[in-house]
Amino acid sequence: MIDIRSDTVTVPTEEMREAMAGAEVGDDVYGDDPTVNALEELGARMLGKEAALFVPSGTFGNQLALFAWCPRGSEAIMGESCHIVEHEAGGAAVIAGVQTRCAPDPEGIPDPQEIAKRLRRQDLHAPATSLICLENAHSSGRAASLQSMDAICEIAAKWEVPVHLDGARIFNAAAALGCDADEIASRADSVMVCLSKGLCAPVGSLLAGPKDFIEAALLKRKIMGGGMRQAGIIAAAGIVALKNHAPLLAEDHARAKALARGIAEIDGARLLWEPEINMVFFSHPCALRPIAASNVVKAFFKRGVRINPPEHGVFRFVTHHWIGDEEIKTILAVAREAFAAEQDGGGSLL
Questions:
Q1: What is the model's pLDDT at position 12?
Q2: By CB neighbour count within 10 A (0-12 exposed, 13-18 middle, 19+ buried), where does 227 fall?
Q3: Distance CA 278, CA 255 (A)
Q4: Which of 3, 111, 175, 240 could be cross-linked to 306 through a Cys-Cys bond (beta carbons 3.0 to 4.6 Å apart)?
Q5: What is the pLDDT of residues 12-53, one digit of tens each?
Q6: CA pseudo-torsion sign 153, 44, 170, 228
Q7: The 279-283 sheet, strands edge to edge
Q8: In which element (H, E) is residue 339 found?
Q9: Which residues, 6 or more positions from 221, have their beta carbon under 8 angstroms from its beta carbon?
Q10: Taking the CB of residue 26, how many other CB atoms lie within 10 A of it?
Q11: Distance CA 284, CA 323 (A)
């Protein structure tokens, strides 16, 4: 199957499997797993941070950052469509006991003035702002400019509020912006990066930041159940991901652009914007008709392509390491047939 539901569907490469099979391990809770230690040192260096901590997932890393930065009952400000709000199951309230205060973020990053309006000091009626969260690249497929991040970070510095960056796809953002990942990460006090989104590692993320912050996060990782003992077996794949796969993400972006050009030629399809990373977002009349949308998803599947159903009338196709030029040709051929069938009202491909 060709799977373009997400870049989380990647399976590890043979090189990763070999590295995992031969990984030297210890007990990471004691701090003596050499492969985990090597991954954390590599990640911290690539992100320009003092230290890093290996965690099970991106959601875990973001929630751990909130847990480590924010006193219970305080408030974290972030964009209303960011991953922490949209896709982390209300974890901020459950784990850190933190209230989230959202700002509009139509292009993936809030307007600095919208952030400034929401900053609060503790008083009889209001919780204190303890953290500002940004996301880059955003799960909308947008790469926020360094200038837009700088404007928000300047406000945060004046208020002496730390900034956490959900950098699940920070290497995608770096490729899109033509800079190194540490240039993006330098705008934040802490940063989380996923190893399993587009980088082909089967599991795991890194949380990076100042040494004292990572020491506090280490204790709270234990509280959250994130001490994974002989975790070097999976950390080994993360090392391969950072060294060998982060530099390849621009190829995924190029294929997303090629896919977008083909989609744009389909009758009724409309790109929401030109792809900036590895995601193609587009609308089609059938996306607003539940039965027609379901038929399209089934038609793709019948021809060996997995896609997600549309959300709010929008389809998202995601390229990744296992989507090459031939796969792009196949996806477009299937798309032309599937959408034409539903445009004609027939659903005849099923």
A1: 98
A2: middle
A3: 8
A4: 3
A5: 999 999 999 999 999 999 999 999 999 999 999 999 999 999
A6: negative
A7: 270-271, 279-283, 314-318
A8: helix 325-343
A9: 53, 55, 64, 227
A10: 17
A11: 23
**pLDDT at residue 256, rounded to an integer:** 98
Answer yes or no: are the C-beta atoms of 138 and 82 closer than 8 Å: yes
**What pLDDT does residue 102 have?**
97
Output the DSSP codes for 76-103: EEEETTSHHHHSSTTHIIIII--EEEEE
Collapsed DSSP state (helix, strand, coil) of residue 296: helix
CB neighbours of residue 66 within 10 Å: 27
Q: How high is the pLDDT of residue 348?
A: 46
Distance CA 109, CA 123 (A): 28
Q: Which residues of the chain have pLDDT under 50?
A: 347-349
pLDDT in tens, 222-250: 999 999 999 999 999 999 999 999 999 99
The pTM (predicted TM-score) of the whole model is 0.96
Tokens of 345: 């009202």
Measured between alpha carbons, how far is 40 from 54 in angstroms, rounded to an integer? 6
Is there a contact between 310 and 295 (Cβ–Cβ < 8 Å)?
no
Q: Is 348 within 8 Å of 337 (Cβ atoms)?
A: no
CB environment 236-252: b (16+ within 10 A), e (fewer):
bbbbbbbeebbeebbbb
- Cα atoms found within 13 Å of the Cα of residue 287, Cβ hemisphere only: 17
